[in-house]
Amino acid sequence: MDDDYGQMYGGEDFMGDIGLEDEAILDYDDGDDNLDLGSDEEEEIESFVGDRNYDERTPEPTISKQEQLRMIHLRSHLNQLTEKVKHHQYLTEKTREEQKQCRNRMSQLETERDQVFKEIQGAESDKNTSALYRLRSRHERICQELENEHELEKMIAERLEQEEYELAKVEVERGKFLLAEDDLIKQEQQLAKEKTDMALQRLRKEEMKAKRAVKQHARRQRDYQTAMEEQKRRQQMALEDAERSHAKHSKFLNQTMEKLQKRQEEENARYKENMKKKMEMLLKLKGDITSNRENLKALHARDKAASKEAKQKEEEERQQILQKGGNPDEILLIRKRIEEFERQKNEFENEKKIKQATIMEKILVEEDRLKKRKKQQPHLWTDVKSDKSKIIGPQKKKPLKIFRELTDSSIFDEDFMKENTYIIDGPEEQATQREEGKESMRAETAGEDKKVTPLPIDSSDSSDAESDGEEKVDLAVPEFEGLWDQHKPYRVPKDTESTVKLPNGSKMEKEILEKVLDKHRQGIVVKQVAAGREFQGCPFYSKPDVIHFKDFEVGKTYKKKVTLTNVSYTVNYCKYINITEMLKDFIDIQFDPPGQMSAGLTCEMMVTFKPMINEDLSGVVNFLSQTGPFAIPLKCTTKKCDLSTDTCRIDFGTTVIGETLKRTFTLTNKGALGTKFEFFKVTGQKERTVTTAATSLGGLTTADTIRAFSPDSTSVVAKKDVTASLEKNVAEEKKAADEADKASMGGMGTSDEQNSTQAAGEGLSVVGEGEQGEEEQPLQESPDLAVSEMEDYGTLDGMKVGLVASGELGPFASTKLEIIWQPHIPGRVDTEFLITFTDPLSDSISIQAVANAIDVPVWVERQTVDLKICMFDRLYQDTIIVNNRATTALRLKFEVCKELKNHLELLPKTGYIQAQSNFSAQMKFLPRKSLFEEAGKYFDKETGVLEAPMIIRVADQTQPVPFTVQAVLTTSDMEFDTTDIDFGCCTIYESTKAKIKLTNKSILPQEFGFVGHPEFVEVQPNDGFGTLLPLETIDLEVIFSPKKAKDYKFELNCKSLINREFKIQCKGIGVHPPLEMSHQVVHFSATPLYDVSTASFHVINSHTSTNEFTHPVPRIGKGEIAPVGPTSFEFVVPEGVPVTISPSVGTIEPGKKCPVWVRFAPELNDLDIRKEAVRMATKALEAQAEKEFEERQKREREEADQALQKAIGKGGKGKDAKSPTKGKGKTSPAPSLTVSGPRPITPPTVDTISKDSPAYASAKASLLRQYRGSFRTVTIPCYVASGKCGNPGELPYSVHNTLYLEVHCPVVKPTLVVISDNGKSILDFGEVSLGQNIIKSVTIQNISNKTVELTSSILNTGGPFLMLNALRVLPPDGTHTILISYTPEKGEVFHEVLEIQTGHTALHITLTGKGVSPMIEINMPMQNGVLDMGAVLAGEYLERTFKLMNSSSLSIDYSIKLDSLSLQRHNEAQVIPAFIQRNKTNPLSVGSQNNNGQNVFDLVPAEGTVPPGSSIDLTVTFAPDHPSDHYSDGVRIELFGKPNVVYLGEQKEETHNFMIKGMAKPRIMFVDGTDERTPEIESLAEETPVPTEDEDGKLLPTPVLFTLRSIAKENDFIPASRDLIVGCVRTMAVSQKKNGEFQFENVQLITQKGFNIEPQKGMVEAGGLKPVTFTWTPPAGHDPNTPVETSVMLTLKGDVTEQVKVMLRAFVVSE
Description:
Elements: H1 2-9, H2 12-18, H3 22-26, E1 28-29, E2 34-35, H4 38-51, H5 65-126, H6 129-175, H7 178-324, H8 328-376, H9 387-390, H10 400-408, H11 414-420, E3 422-423, H12 427-446, H13 462-472, H14 507-522, E4 529-530, E5 533-534, E6 540-543, E7 547-552, E8 558-566, E9 574-579, E10 587-590, E11 602-609, E12 617-625, E13 628-638, E14 643-645, E15 649-656, E16 661-669, E17 675-681, E18 685-686, H15 702-706, H16 719-743, H17 752-781, E19 791-792, E20 799-801, E21 806-809, E22 814-821, E23 827-837, E24 845-854, E25 858-860, E26 864-871, E27 876-884, E28 890-896, E29 904-907, E30 910-913, E31 918-925, H18 931-934, E32 945-954, E33 961-970, E34 974-976, E35 980-987, E36 992-1000, E37 1006-1010, E38 1017-1020, E39 1025-1028, E40 1033-1040, E41 1047-1056, E42 1061-1072, E43 1076-1077, E44 1081-1083, E45 1087-1088, E46 1093-1100, E47 1115-1116, E48 1127-1131, E49 1139-1142, E50 1145-1148, E51 1153-1160, H19 1166-1211, H20 1219-1222, H21 1254-1266, E52 1270-1282, E53 1299-1308, E54 1312-1314, E55 1322-1329, E56 1334-1342, E57 1348-1349, E58 1351-1352, E59 1361-1363, ...
Parallel strand pairs: 3-13, 7-13, 15-24, 26-33, 35-42, 44-53, 45-53, 55-63, 65-73, 75-83
Antiparallel strand pairs: 1-2, 4-5, 6-8, 8-11, 9-12, 10-11, 12-13, 14-16, 16-22, 17-21, 17-23, 18-19, 20-22, 23-24, 25-27, 27-31, 28-30, 28-32, 29-31, 32-33, 34-36, 36-40, 37-39, 37-41, 38-40, 41-42, 42-47, 43-46, 46-51, 48-50, 48-52, 49-51, 52-53, 54-56, 56-61, 57-60, 58-62, 59-61, 62-63, 64-66, ...
């Protein structure tokens, strides 16, 4: 349907026939009133025009802009309608498809419904109730779905109807535009045709413009060549002038340089001498300071000792007064006041004497001064006889006028000042001052008779005052003050305040007289004589020499700092007097008198200038020094113009008529005032100008007078008159300037610049008057004539002013002015130009232009044809343009010199040039190698420069037209340093490179490139392409990468840009090794020092078959094929490389691969660390030696001070306290030090630094912080051999099958370092007992400039190491301490690595430790873990000592704890008592205890440390306080806080605790071993005391039970035997009996019943036990069921005699 629609309405198919697209038609160009079709559309339009046979001559009406817009909108509307039709067609088809699917679904549901209905009927007939219910529900569901589908079908039908309606509407709408679309298509075709025509028209215009641009470019090139030739000519002329000038002035320059060198040498010698003297003075000063310091220290020490001694005496005296009962405070206070009064009295007397002596000394000095002054200045004193005649009477007051003149004059005498004042200025200023001085002297000489002679006054001599002041200076100045900072300001010594009275004089006369006398006093001058030489000249040098305020503006303030330097021989003074009177209103002087100034010292003065009038000012600043007055010139100048040009003469040289040349010069204003200028031509200007009678030159200003010579002025001056007037003007200006200079010498405030300005002004006015006199007559003759136009005859000489003829020149600015030379008439031309200015004080500037014009009918535009640099065997062409200024055509013949006929050709050789036209000839230059021999004199073989003259012969002209051809010839060769390259054997997995050098033999840069080489060859850099600079040599790398195993032979071809070829022969062998690597290059990431990076690759054995036709096989070139089988490899890592390969050796079966791991662990070089350690150790030793040296110096100084103090103490006895002052100025010699310097050190050597030393660790940490990073590439060979590998290093490999692994190893500075334990990253816990917890710390620091976040690896959760604290964010230079806990559980060595990570880097901390099982041996005689202390009397104690030995390899901390002191004792006792239980295997360890609360048992020391392999003594004390047989206690030994004891006795049985028991007896004899009659646990209840004595006081017998058991056999009895222990306690009482005795009585009675006792009596030693054996043998006829009971009396004799009734009981038991 779409196709039908397209055919019907002319859609896309029709548009395709036209060949245009919608986008091309709708692309509208606003710039042109047409459509913009773009580049692709233009090509289609061209083809379309060609197909339609477009005739551009057929006129057709163009389509307007409105029509184009209508076409665009119409096309857009048609496209939208087409899209709507397609859209509705798509929706209609889609709806119909949905309707079809819906109907199919409905048919399926109806079929299914009928089938289910049939099944329901079958189920009802079968009465299948369960199936019936299921089928009915299914039927209902199907019906519901069918109903839904019906509704959906209705909706789809409605939608389809609506879509069909919409489609019909759109199609109808689209059909309305069928005719309009046909018209639109035709218009679009016409528009495309118009666009094509316009494009062709534009193309023609562009071609025309391009041709014009080419012509303009050629014309500019010709002009450029001409300008370059002229520039070269001028440069050559300048060079020749410079050479002549250099030759002329070189001899004078050499003489000047010799003088300067000699003067410099003298200055250097003088400077060295002065420096030497200064150094000696400083050294002497340093020695004096040191000696003074030592003396002061000694004096301070002496004063301190004296003060201490006085205090000690005062304290002793105070004690004596107290002992006598007096009041020490009152007595001492009275004594101190008396002493203070006496001291003040003595001081007053001494001061009185000193003052009297000083007054007398001053009187004497004054008398000497008066005497000297009377000799030096006798005119100040008059004779007494003539006083009356010279004294003015009181009635004659006419001399007031003279006094007034004296007071109004300068403070000091004018004639004296003029003779002695030194002005710091040039010779002109000094001459001016001398003239002024002479005039003032002449003025004062006239009134000399009227001056009043002063009366005698007191005065002082400055030289005496200076010497006197030097005597008063105290040189004992403390060394802590500055050497030059604390000078006392100099004060001129005042004369004696004597008042000279004027007899009968008024008050005014007295004041005037005092002023005159002050003037005389201040004008005193003293000659300065040093080393026999008198100083003459200015005593102070001023910097700057002249205080010049240049270019000032009214209203602003200017300041200048002036530095005055004393250049006299010795000490001098400087005093500011005054400034020129006319400058006082504008100048402010700030000067602080510096006082006494040594030679060479400087002082500063600040001069402030506040201008109020715009005039030049000048004057002087007057100073007075010791050697006389001096003055500093001061100038203040306004803004002025300073105009000049860089040249006053311009030479154009010789020029052919018709050429145009331009020359420029620079007009510069160096002044601060701007002005307007006018540049015009003077020579050849003929003007006819008539002015009215009212106009006269007298009324013109200076600028108007100067402008009288300009073309625009109203005066008429002929050329000769102007020249004469200018010369006269210059002469009169000079004359007027000289007169003005002479006239201004008498004025004080006139400067040189002002004088010259005034002179120039006067000169200009004179010129104006002269001109006025000459011009008055013609002006008066024709007063009413009008001004006529100017007739300029000056253009005939060809000279004229450029574009810039007038303008404004700012301050400190410059401008370019141009003169144009275009001759029309042959001959020499000399033209004068003038530059005038509006500034009345600026003179006009004259510029002279000189040129020469010649007339030749034929001339060449370029006299020199420069071909630049040319290569041999290359063709170069150029055009020779010949001009003809004649009015007839001429024949030309081009001639080439015979030497160059084989190389250079001019075409055509003969030609005709038309009148007033030009002719172009073609020059072809093809230099060949033979040019070296054939060119002869025209070619320089060394420089390669060719200069060949060419001639153009002109018919009927004798003079030929010459021109020159210039060129620099060079070769185009490039050269390799080798002709053959042999790459050798190279595997197919790698590349081999060879280095070659390529040299450019030419003086031109040449581009080159290696082309046509095989794909397995590569040339670098830049892929073998580049540019060679002249005579340059570059290095190239030829990379050979074979692709398969074979022999390679090929050649490298290098081509230059001119298509020259240079070849190299190459060969190589490709090798296919039996093994290959998955990676040839391993790139490690940036790895910090002491970090680890790993990478992996595979070594593959892919050689499984020797069939070379199916796949490549391993071989060397075309050699034998490698056998199939196991192949071995071996990696050999170069020495010193921190790279480890694992496995380094291996064997790979065919078709298998082996993983290989590469580990990169960078470390610092051991030698560098040792050197750094030596450097640090040397530095530390030097510092220590320096410190020791300072300590020794200090100690020797203290000893010297003590010795000096002792010497002063001995020498001061019996001397007056004032004696130290007598030797004023003399110091005691400084004590000499015996220590000359620090002791020499012996630095350690590199070999003495061990890796475990702290110095090594410190050096390592220092280098880590200073590390800057590095990069290293390592090539590791992998040797390959067939068969299985043997020992490392013995692999029978072939070197040609070697593989290479390239490893890139970048190393950076670590982020974290360990700063604890001298930077060691190994945390060794050493040997630690099992179960013991040890905590150690390691401190790390961030040495990077970034904040890092710390993370760590996870330690073994079942291991002994544990990190206790968390990590945190670490700022730059921040530190963090990590706590590591170590708790071993096994007796073995533990090793783990803790990795502290910071993102890209990690710090590895090695944790190591050894778990050791503690071994303790106790040599106690224990049985079954029980230590029996035996028996002791109640109230006494027993001690026993044992050994506690440590048999392990570590120190053991132990602690002994008793169960009786345990907090859990009472909880453990809350059980059924042992005597009630049947099973008595678990008795309580804690038995009877003392009633007094003290421990029964005690072990000392209870805790401590046992060193490894040693033992300590352990003392056990048993001290019961009451009798009991059940004393016991449990003992636990805890090691490191945990119970763990190993007992190594005879049976070597382990136990964690043991028990101690003992018995307390009331008497020394006791019986043990009997049956228990009472429980082991004592009762807490009160027991009824059992009577132990009878009524007679005898001890009652103590009953004990003794049981014997006989074992019954079949027909016999085994006798029962048992021991009864009789013991004797070792008592501590001396009076008691030590040994005991025992005896059994009435033994016969028990013998009858079968009992037997052995022995029946005996003696027991103190502390011993005696066993007594009881044996029972059942008698004959004994009834086994009946026990036998009897008793026997045992008598014990010890401290007392007592009896024990032993109740015997025997019975028979079965086995």
